[in-house]
Write a structure and sequence with these properties.
The chain is mostly beta strands. 10% of the residues lie in helices and 45% in strands. It has one domain: Gyrase A, domain 2. The strands form two sheets. Strands 1-2-8-7 form a four-stranded mixed sheet. It has a four-stranded mixed sheet with strand order 3-4-6-5. The longest helix has 8 residues.
Length: 122
């Protein structure tokens, strides 16, 4: 799982295995240790919503994905899901959950668990 945060935007990319686990009803979790502190992020399937939502508590970002969106996601051509979550004031949080695609350049690293890239060029 890859996490990208920029301003009021949270973007998460998932490998094939992670998408399969999420579709089957399992939560996906990652942590990063900073010595005495740990930062975490998780993606959880839920029944109570029809769009992406998120929370931040106890140093953990949680992204909640409606199960209705996940139906057949591991085998269909849907790249991902996006939402603009309203915040308490007049602002919003941009949420994006995507399948992670293989890079088309000569990236070094194991990409065997990534989805085939539908593009033919960068």
């Amino acid at each position: 799982m890859k996490l990208r945060i920029k301003g009021n935007s949270v973007r998460i990319r998932l490998s094939k295995t992670e998408v399969d686990e999420l579709v089957s009803g399992l939560s996906i979790e990652e942590t990063t240790s900073f010595g005495e502190n740990t930062f975490g992020y998780t993606v959880k399937p839920v029944n109570y919503s029809d769009q992406l939502t998120a929370s931040y508590d106890n140093n953990i970002i949680s992204l909640y994905v409606p199960k209705v969106l996940l139906k057949d996601w591991s085998t269909n051509s849907v790249v991902g899901f996006e939402a603009m979550m309203p915040l308490d004031d007049s602002d919003h949080l941009h949420l994006l959950l995507e399948k992670d695609f293989k890079c088309l350049d000569k990236t070094i690293g194991d990409q065997s668990d990534f989805f085939d890239n539908p593009s033919t060029n960068c």
